[in-house]
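In the previous chapter we treated chains in isolation. Here, by contrast, the input contains two separate entities that must be folded as one system, with a combined length of 652 residues.
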Amino acid sequence: MSESEPHSNAEQSPIAVVLPDGSELEVPADATVADCAYEIGPGLGRDTIAGKLDGELVAKEAPVYEGARLEIVTDQSEEYLDVLRHSAAHCLAQAVERHFDDVKLAIGPPTEEGFYYDFDDLDVDESDFDALEAEIDAIIEEDYAIEREELTVEEARERLADEPYKLELLEELAADGEQVTFYTQGEWEDLCAGPHVESTGEVGVVELLEIAGAYWRGDEENPMQTRIYGTAFEDEGDLEQFLERREEAKERDHRKIGNEMDLFSIQDVTGPGLPLYHPPGKTILRELEAFVEDLNLDTGYDYVETPHVFKTELWHRSGHYQNYADDMFIFDVGDDEFGLKPMNCPGHAAIFQDHSWSYRDLPVRYAENGKVYRKEQRGELSGLSRVWSFTIDDGHLFVRPDQIEREVESIMDAIDDVLSTFDLEYEVALATRPEKSVGSDEIWERAEEQLEAVLEKRNIDYDLESGDGAFYGPKIDYAFKDAIGRSWDGPTVQLDFNMPERFDLEYVGEDNESHRPVMIHRALYGSYERFFMMLIEHYEGNFPLWLAPEQLRVLPISDANLGYAHRVKNAFEEFRVEVDQRDSTLERKIRAAHDDRVPYQIIVGDNEEEAGTISVRDRFEDQEYDVEVDTFKAHLERERDEKRPAPDFLAD
RNA sequence: GCCAGUGUAGCUCAGCCGGCAGAGCGAAUCCUUCGUAAGGAUUAGGUCGAGGGUUCAAAUCCCUCCACUGGCUCCA
């Protein structure tokens, strides 16, 4: 609110802030964000909504400091939406307090998709949304000025006497300094750091989305509060777009498509989080398995197989029991305790250990499509994304310390291969030694250097996540983006100095002394379940030819062409092909093939039968008549073997 | 585990202020033999998630449980 000109304070020496273009701006020592904006230009000064200091969103009244990287936030900035939504959260809280008595306020920040506000002692359900939205609209209509006030902690304490949660926050803020800020709109006020838009009229359109429970401060020990989620945009059009995107994500939901395409089911009788794969789903999984199997065999992996159940002695040895027992399925058999494996690595370490090794034998590379079992919290289970049983395309390498770089590089080649096959863009992060860790300084240093060397050599732009590594070793994590821009955790490469220690793994070196190998855990997909889920949503069920459960469908125009249709089917028997022999019209058959997401339809009628040709139609509704069977077959073979992302026989 | 919502035919859903269990799609059968995204008719298909309670009567109201959805929390 203070549109003051820059203070001229000749007594204090000026300070400098860094602007986004890299230039420095000199301002008086007591300058605020707004002052800086006015210094840059009066237009910008007037448009200033908030600022960012070293990346942190702050009110325009916030003081700047020497050397700060300053960005001015106007209604053109990306951050503007955050500010607007924060104000929308206030409007929600104001509306709630108008409609419900004795509600206690907690916090109400903006989020990536909108905002929420947490309340205690609020009994609300979605049938109240209409009334609350109407109230919010009224508040926006009223166009209350949103006023910022600075108060001392004492004053704030008085005003917040009825708000226990706010008081709790205040006590923490009190430790930091003597001033806190309040924002007021109409009769409503809140302890809040801001920033906010100038008035409620600027909030635009608000839509409430859902009600959820949330623990105060995210701690299970604390009371559960009522959280109302909503979103806000500058105008109706943006909101519509948002709702459409949400709808699109829903359309792509792998549970919906998995059901439609008969890919898998998770049934009450068989238990939660335990997916059953139906033939079409397993067909896709088998193609995925074959793909990594080729990659693995090409890069020198040997396949091994380990049981699903082990004596828990193995997990005591590996250390999983101590840290992981709560998430394991454990049961007694006679006097012994057994458990379902939550990971494949101890089994692989046990295989390695059953042998003596020379330095010449390394690296040893084991691969297994290993099914593992983890007893996740029930509320966490969701479709294929979080399950109790899943299969990892697991690989474990036992290498000499000097081999790390080469091996990691070859793993990254394979990951590249996989992700590019599915048209997935990715980001890479290197996570380094955390505070608590096992392994010597030398081995950590050497390993991290090698990982960095690989990343540098490959010219990969990566995030350094310092201290984020596992306690047993550093790792490289991949995250990729799907067709509608959502980000997923992808493959990882993890070095492990702990397991070799625990299993006392050794090899005999050139010096005839025994040495400790380094273990590398890697997966190309991660888990088949997660990757499958992601692919279903990525492709919206429209799988590329090589993955499609039904690759071709022959549609006879009338029953008179059924015989020819079957002869055509036989000609394509190396593919997954069906004949639609239902008694219905061609239109219906085309529609059905389309709904079933079959990549190619082969249409045969009298014309084709007489000429001995076929008509080819793809899922994009393109069609070519009079195609020779061999021509199409040759194309299909190439399309399948090259794993092309979409049917392209009819592409120009 | 916690908060809120949902659970009815293979699928999508209606019925829910108590009174005979419904529709569309799909399936089967028949008519139709069809040239590029729904031709017509008939039939079958249900422990209304499970258990208990209230009532003359429960899909509907109440209680308990289960599962699912969205969050929270947790996550090597």
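Chain A has four domains: 15-73, 80-248, 270-539, 552-641. The radius of gyration of chain A is 31 Å. Compare these points with the single-chain example from earlier in the chapter.
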